[in-house]
Amino acid sequence: MVPVRPENAYQARLLRMLRDDGPRSRVELGDAVGLSRSRLIAEVDRLVELGLVETAGPAASRGGRRSSLLRVAGTVRFAGVVIGTDRLTVAVTDGELNVLAELREPADVRSGPGPVVARAGELVGKLRAELGLAQLTGVGVGLPGPVAFREGTPIAPGALPGWHGFPVRDTLGAELGCPTLVDNDANVMALGEQHAGIGRTFDDFLYVKLGTAIGCGLVLRGAPHRGATSGAGDIAHLRLADEGPGCACGEAGCLEAYCGEAGLIGAALDAARSGRSPALADRLATAGTLTMADVAGAAAGGDPAVQAVVRDAARRLGQVLVGLVSFVNPGIVIIGGAPDGLGHTLLAEIRAVVYRRSAPLATGTMPIVLSDLGERAGVVGAARLISEQVFAAE
Amino acid sequence: MVPVRPENAYQARLLRMLRDDGPRSRVELGDAVGLSRSRLIAEVDRLVELGLVETAGPAASRGGRRSSLLRVAGTVRFAGVVIGTDRLTVAVTDGELNVLAELREPADVRSGPGPVVARAGELVGKLRAELGLAQLTGVGVGLPGPVAFREGTPIAPGALPGWHGFPVRDTLGAELGCPTLVDNDANVMALGEQHAGIGRTFDDFLYVKLGTAIGCGLVLRGAPHRGATSGAGDIAHLRLADEGPGCACGEAGCLEAYCGEAGLIGAALDAARSGRSPALADRLATAGTLTMADVAGAAAGGDPAVQAVVRDAARRLGQVLVGLVSFVNPGIVIIGGAPDGLGHTLLAEIRAVVYRRSAPLATGTMPIVLSDLGERAGVVGAARLISEQVFAAE
Question: Which InterPro entries match (chains A, B) (predicted)?
C-alpha cells in the first residue's frame, strides 16, 4: 500500500502543526501558517479528502459562527521501535505521537540482527492486532550505534557485533509494509525530547545518552543534525587519555570506557578489589560480580570510593561537553539514560565542570538537565522520525 | 532610504540563485525553482519592477524563441568590511558578490571601537564615491571575537579591548544609511568560502581561522550555524592543559595560547632563548624581538626546533578538531589564515592527528584543506552576510 502524503509544503506544515500542537480550528491554523482564508480552506479540505485530517468537534467560539476543530486523522498510526543492547521496546502512537500501546522485553543483540529485527517486527504486529489496525502509517527505529541514514543500516556499531551493514530499514519495512526509517538511538531520543520533553522550547539542544553505549543527538535550528555522513554526535570513542581503561572498541581511554556502564562497573570493581570500597568488596565476594545497580546503590548510600568513581566519570564527560557546548552553543543540554540513582550525582559534577570551563557567551544562560521523559523519549522520537518523512510534501 | 526587498519566498529564492549562479534564463530559473511558467514570469517581472533584477542579454538558444538572460540588477551593490586586529579591509561587490573595488590599511583596534568603526565608514564611503554609487544595498561586517548577532555588538572580545557592547552595527548602519549586519570574522569567512571557495559544494563544513585570534565558522545544512546565543565556533579558549602557556584572556593552556600567533611566537622565543634554535637566537639578539615572519622563515628553512614548535601547535589544534569533527560530522574542514609559509606544515600535522584519532564514519572521506580564497574570504563573506538578509522575503 502506497502511503498517503501531503501534496505541498503548506499541507505538510498544517499536518506537522496538528501533530505538535493538537487539535486546532481553521482560524488558528490560518493565523499560524499565514495563508488566506480561501486557500487555507482548500488545503484543509484536501487533507481531509486524503484521509490525513479529520474534524474533532466544535472549537471554542471567538464570536461569529461556531467553527470546528481539526486534528490528525485517527487512521494515522505510527510505530516506534528502540533496539537496546539488552532489550527491545516497541510502541504504537496516534498522529500526535501519544503512545497508545507499548511492549518491552529482554533481547540480546549479540544473537545478531536477523532474529532481533524479526522479533521487533512481531512485536509491532502484535500491537497492531491488539489495536485493530489494518495498516501502520510508518515505523521509526533507533539503535545503539552509528547508522548510515540514507541506507538504513548500522555502521560498525561497537555495541552491536555482527550488525554492520545489515539492512534493518529494508527488512523491517518489507515485513511491516509501510515507510520505515532507522537512526542512531541518541538522535531518536533527541527527537523524543523535541516532541514531548524540555527540548520542545529550544531550537538548539544536545541530548547526551548515557548507558551501555554513549551517544549524543543534536537538534540544531529546529531539526536533527546528522552531518555529512550521518555520523554527527558520535562521541563515544573520543580519546580522553592515551593511557586509560580499555574500551569495547579495542582502544583505550575513550569517553565510553570511563562513562559507559562497563566503564563505571570496571572502576567500581577496582575500588572493590583494592579495598577502597569494603561494601562493594563484600558484594563482589558474595555475588562474584558487580552490577550497575550495585554501583548506583553504593554511591547513593554514601560510599566515598564509589562516589569518587561516579564523579570522575562525570568530570570527564563534562570536559568533553565543554568543547561541544562552546562549539555549537546549544540552548540546553539534556542528559538521558543515567543509571537509576546516579543522575543527580552525575549532573552536579557535569554542571560544575561545564560552567567553570566554558566561554561565558555559550553557557551564561544554558541549563543542563536530566531528561524527564526517561525511556519514553526513544519510542516517541522514533515515531517522530518517521512522521517527519510521512508528513512532508513529496 | 528604505531598501527594496523581495516580496515573497519565491522572489527571494530567485534572487539568491542569480547571486550564486550568475545570469540565467527564465527557463533555467523556472526549472530550478519549480514554478509554473506563468507564475515564474509574474515573479520575475515583479523583481524587475522592484529594480532587483535586470535583463543581461540573449541566452543560448534551446530551440524555439530566443530568451534573454536575467541577472541581479547593476544597482545592487554590497560592501564587506573586515576588522582585523591590525588592519581594516573594505570592499564593494556587485550583486553576485564579485569584488569591484577594495581598500586595505593598517588599523589598531586598541585605539577603541569609535575611531576604527568611523574609519571603516570613511573607507566604504570612499569606495562608494569612486564607483559613483548613490546608495549601497547593504553592508556586512566581520570582527575578531564573539558577537551578539541580534544586537550587532561585540561580546567581551579578547582581541578587541574596549569594544564590549559597542554598537558596531547601529553606528555603521547610521553612518552609511543602509541595512548593516555584524558577525564574528570566522563566521563571515565561512560564508565567503561558501560563496566563492571550496565550501560551495558542501552542505556542512567547518572553517577554522588561524592568526592572531583563533575562531571557527560553522556552515551546517547549508546555512551559518550561530547557536542559541551566537557563540557557536568559539573555540579559542578551550583549555587543552591545566598548566600551559599564558593566554591573552588571562587563563593558561587555551587553544589560542598554543596556536595563535602570540603563542607560536612565544614558543619560538623559548626555542631561541634556550639555544634550541641558534638561528632564532641570532635573530632575537639582532632585532630584540621575533615576528611571525621570523618564525615562519625558520620553520620553512628547516630549523628543527621551530618546526617542532609548529608541529606541536598543529597537533593540539588537531586534537580539538577530532572532537569537533566527530561531533558535527562536516563534509570538509577548511583552514584559513595560516601564517605565510606555515600552511602546509600545519596541515600535514593536523591531518595526521585527525585521521588517526577520529571515528571512521566521520572522517572516512572528509578532506582537510587550506583555504584557497585567502583574505578575500572575509570581504566576500561579509557581503554575503548582508545579502542573505536583503535577499530574503520580509
Answer: ATPase_NBD (IPR043129), ROK (IPR000600), WH-like_DNA-bd_sf (IPR036388), WH_DNA-bd_sf (IPR036390)
pLDDT one-digit tens code per residue, B127-137: 999 999 999 99
When computed from its CA atoms, the radius of gyration of chain A, rounded to whole angstroms, is: 23
Distances in whole angstroms, Cα of residue A93 to Cα of each of A10, A60, A97:
24, 27, 5
In this structure, are A132 and A60 located in the same domain?
A: no
**Final residue of a domain: which of B46, B72, B98?**
B72
Same domain, A353 and A282: yes
Mean pLDDT of A284-306: 94
What percentage of chain A carries pLDDT values higher than 90? 77
Q: Strand order in B24-25's β-sheet?
A: B24-25, B68-72, B53-58
- CATH number of the domain bearing residue B231: 3.30.420.40
Same domain, A288 and A365: yes
- Complex ipTM over 0.85: yes
Q: Alpha helices of chain A — where are they, by DSSP H?
A: 9-21, 26-33, 37-49, 113-130, 168-176, 185-196, 255-259, 261-273, 278-287, 292-300, 304-328, 343-357, 360-363, 376-390
For residue A57, pLDDT over 80 is answered with no
Average pLDDT, chain A: 92
How big is the CA angle at A358 (ends B208 and B262), to the nearest 5 degrees? 50
Residue B181, domain member (yes or no): yes
Provide the number of structural domains found in chain B: 3
- Does residue A146 belong to the interface with chain B, where contact is any CB pair within 8 Å? yes
A155 touching B (Cβ < 8 Å):
yes
Residue B2 lies inside a defined structural domain of this protein: no
pLDDT attached to residue B273: 96
Grid coordinates given for A238: 573520543
Q: How big is the A-B interface in CB pairs under 8 Å?
A: 138
pLDDT for the residue B359: 66
Task: Assess if residue B230 is contained within a domain.
Answer: yes
For residue A131, tell me if it sits in a domain.
Answer: yes
**Hunting for cell 565556533 — which residue is that?**
B233
Domain boundary among B53, B72, B91: B72
Q: Are residues A101 and A156 in the same domain?
A: yes
* B248 and B273 belong to one structural domain: yes
Same domain assignment for residues B213 and B309: yes
Tell me whether A228 touches chain B (CB under 8 Å): yes
What distance in Å separates the CA atoms of residue A166 and residue A118, rounded to the nearest whole number? 12
Q: Are residues A271 and A331 in the same domain?
A: yes
Q: Do A361 and B232 touch (CB under 8 A)?
A: no
What would the grid cell of residue A206 be?
Answer: 544536545
Q: Is A239 on the interface with B (CB under 8 A)?
A: yes
Residues of chain B with C-beta less than 8 angstroms from the C-beta of A155: 361
Q: Can you tell me the mean pLDDT for A78-107?
A: 96
- pLDDT for residue A313 is more than 80: yes
Residue A244 contacts B, CB cutoff 8 Å: no
Q: Is A340 left (phi over 0), alpha (psi -120 to 50) or beta?
A: beta
Are the Cβ atoms of B223 and A221 closer than 8 angstroms? yes
Domain range for B57 is 9-72
pLDDT at B360: 63
CATH number for the domain that contains residue A15: 1.10.10.10
* A227–chain B nearest CA distance, Å: 5
CB-based contact, B157 to chain A, within 8 Å: no
pLDDT of residue B363: 65
Q: What is the pLDDT of residues A214-244, one digit of tens each?
A: 999 999 999 999 999 999 999 998 888 888 8
Chain A interface includes B366 (CB < 8 A): yes
For chain B, which residues score pLDDT lower than 50? 1
Min Cα distance A371 → chain B (Å) is: 20
Residues B95 and B130 occupy one common structural domain: yes
